[in-house]
Sequence to fold (480 residues):
Amino acid sequence: MSLRLETIRADIEQAVPALRRFARALLARPEAHQTLATLHVLADDLVHETVLLAIRSERVVDSFRPIKLSLYASLIGFHAAHLKQIGSLTHRQGAFALEDTSQNHEHGLIGALDHLALEDRVVLLLISLEQMSYDETAEILHISRALVIQRLVRARNHLVRHMPGQQSGVSSHPHLRLVK
Amino acid sequence: MKRARLTITDSDLASYVDDEASLVPRSDVQAHLEETPEDRARVDLWLRHKELLQLAFGRAAHEPVPLALSVSHPRTVRPDHDDDLEAQITAVQALEPLTQSQNVSRSGVQPSHRWLYGFILGALCAGLVLVFKPELMQDLTALGYRLGVSGSEPQKLDEINLQLARRASEAHRTFVAARNLGLMGALTIADDPSLSLALTKLVGVGVHVPNFKAEGLQLVAARVTPGELGPAAFLLFQSDLGETIGLLISRIVGAETSYPVYRNDRGTATLTWTAGQGGYVLTGQLDSNRLLALRKASGF
Fold:
């Protein structure tokens, strides 16, 4: 195996733990719809697909883009394609009552994520969970930095609105403020 | 001198939270937040949500990576977090005593290694003959092949069939559960030829969506699943009565055509066969006759 290929494989291997984390956050649904075991299986399934494609794809080898960013792009692509295949671009499947979630903030968070549009959820997770920069996120998604920020703000305001018990005294509507 | 008035937007607040470069200096954003409790509270919540995301999912990055996701072993089995998996596999193995007993030869040599010994023996013989009797080279190479590869081929096929059956049965359980949980919605492009094309490309062997309408079944979900034999397509069909049938299609390099084998793994029946470059498994809670009829209708 060439040194270049060895380096690529090492990079892929190094990215796998973070990809698993991202996949779980991307697929997570409230417990009423999904058990933890199912989530872990489906998430690893998605990561495995991504890793296999990366190993086999010459595009990744020839790409000037860092491998890590290509892997995230592939994983998101697989997930979006699957959602499109089943005829929905959001995770929502029927009504979900936030009042029914427990007071546990983790559950509330997953419930609120479930109501996010995929494009907003992806941006939020890449930046807030995966600690990607705005520029890296823009590169992964092939969108402008301005659009990344727009989606991020929309996602964050959505969480503020939908996380149980956290809205008091906070307006999630965009504001323009003046400082002297 | 009075400072110019700056507009603080949500974008500036986001850049502040993520420590990203912004046109507005951080000190100005901080000053704004001190003067505007409502935005201060919102920014605090944004930061809190970042922490919560880390708390909820961060630990996944510190868990040991399953062997299947190791790049050094890209063809190993897909990980399964179901504690019941071992029991499931044992149950399937128990159904195949003959296959399992064949896995160790009388000499104690693992069959999967026998081709190697055959190859070495063949190469040694070929080396000697090349020196002394070059005309016998062709015959001895064939002999080495027979000692090694041919001897293990039938067992290899059994192993492949068993692996396919396990994988299909596992996929059936997972995807039926996923569909029941609302994770797999209705498929809207069941008749779209691009589905067959995409699956063929991903799996590496011809995949078409069988027409089971005469059997009262229609395609409701399609997925590509990983596995030790490479990616496989899994098609899920459902009848109006709620009967679910799965069809797993995988590329099997060098497999011979085999007769269909029926197994029943804790209520999930499988019918496995290979043909050409493909391995096929029908799954469902059905008897062998029904599965054989579906196999005929599948066209594989």
Notes: The beta strands of chain A are 177-179. Chain A is about 65% helix and 0% strand. The first strand of chain A starts at residue 177 and ends at 179.
